[in-house]
Amino acid sequence: MNRSPRRAALLVVFLVAALGMPVTAANAAAPYDRPDTAPAAVAAIPTAGALARTCYVSPKKGVSAVAVRRTASTSGTRIGLMYPGQRATAACSATRGGSYSACGSGSSPWWIKITWKGARGYVAQRCVNWTYSG
Predict the structure, then answer these.
(1) C-alpha distances in angstroms, 2 versus 7, 14, 30, 61?
(2) Pick from 5, 39, 9: which is nearest to 25 by CA?
(3) What φ, ψ does residue 41 adopt, rounded to 5°?
(4) Which H/E stretch holds residue 55?
C-alpha cells in the first residue's frame, strides 16, 4: 500500500487520538522517536482534547524510592525522594535531559516534570508509572 507521508502522519494522529493519547507535532511527525516505555499519556504538547487531563507519577513496583531532582539530570540537586505508595502531579509530557541508567537496562534521557511538595522537579521516566485521569 502506497501512502504519502502526510497521510501516514494523519493516520498516526488518528490512531493515537483514538487510543486516548495526547497528540503532538513530535509524535505525529516522528512516532518512533519518543520515550521508551511511555504510557498512554506520552506527548510533548497536548491537543485540545487532552487539556482536561491530569497526569500523575508513582514509583514502579520494585523501586524502593525515586529521586526528585531540580533539573532533568542525575547531576541536578535532589530535592526529595518519592516512596512506594506516594504519587505526584506530573506533566503529561516527557522531557529530554541527561542520560541515566536506573530502573532498566541501558540508558535513557527521558524525564518527567512533576510538582513535589510544592516544588517543581523531575523524575526518571523509567522509574515511575505514568498515569492520567480526565
Answers:
(1) 10, 18, 18, 43
(2) 9
(3) -95, 15
(4) strand 54-59
Q: What percent of the chain is predicted at pLDDT more than 70?
A: 62
Length of the chain: 134
User: Regarding the domain with residue range 35-133, which homologous superfamily does it belong to in the CATH classification?
Assistant: SH3 Domains (2.30.30.40)
pTM of the predicted model as reported, rounded to 2 decimal places: 0.64
Cβ-based neighbours of 39, under 8 Å, separated by 6 or more: 129, 130, 131, 132
Nearest-angstrom CA–CA distance, 45 and 26? 8
HSE (side-chain half, CA atoms, 13 Å) at 51: 3
Q: Which tens digit of pLDDT belongs to each residue from 87-104?
A: 999 999 899 999 999 998
Q: For residue 5, give the nearest of 24, 23, 31 by alpha carbon.
A: 31
- Domain residue ranges in the chain: 35-133
Whole-angstrom Cα distance, residue 126 to residue 8?
29
Residues 49-58: tens digit of each pLDDT: 556 789 999 9
